[in-house]
Prior knowledge:
This protein is of the alpha/beta class.
Amino acid sequence: MPRAAVNGVELFYEIAPCGGAAGDEAPGDEWVVLLNGVAMSVAHWRPVVDRLPKRYRCLLHDFRGQSLSPDAPGKAGVRGLEDHVDDLVALMDAVGVAKAHIAGTSYGAEVALLFAIAHPERTASVVSIDGVSELDPLLKAAVEAWKAAALADPVVFYRATIPWNYSAGYLAANADALARREAAVAALPRSWFTSFAGLCDAFLRIDFTKDLARIGCPTLVVVAEHDILKGERFARIIADHVRGSVLRVIPGAGHAVVVERPAEVAAAVAEFLGGLPGQSPGAAR
Length: 285
């Protein structure tokens, strides 16, 4: 597994060709960085990567404190989302990516937005999928409950997150897959849950709506229609504060839209990238 030593931690990362490109096909010449949600790993992105145009290649990684990038013994862990921004800069340097389209979902969307604010020279565009730039009491209470459940019991944790993450339709159609996922979560090491709690603490310090006006690159704001955790109200806050941004609603999906509707997510991102100046819209469809 490829790893990069950055800022005192080792990050697991992957470089993946888009569109299922393999064999003798030349890799794409433009980079898309895909940033995980708080409980994700890079594997969750593969159905999206396989559907993106072949002109792109993707850089993916597990954040410090996530699955394959665990906190190192004796380290302080994540202090804030800015740590992930700094890690991404170092990772891009390590693998030779000067500039990229930065896209993320949920926790990763917030890191993507902060990256665009802090490093405009390295951000070709930014895509926020079900992200926020501030908290409200309900979102804060939900994440605090997730943290408490993670520290108490793996199965309780998983079941507590389910209704927030998925649409009713997805829950009805995927009961067996969700049961298998519950068993996999229950088998995770205790360190996964303590690290998750640290990621929750970093998330609970989010408050950067006032800084969104500093984003000058093309911006796509995607939100799932039935996201009850970080829904359209939060998406509109972002879209209203980032000049020239585009808001896209994916119908029928819940918060975990990357899992529920990877084809629609890939299509939205591809259409957006294909419409940027200097791009070929036909290549992105």
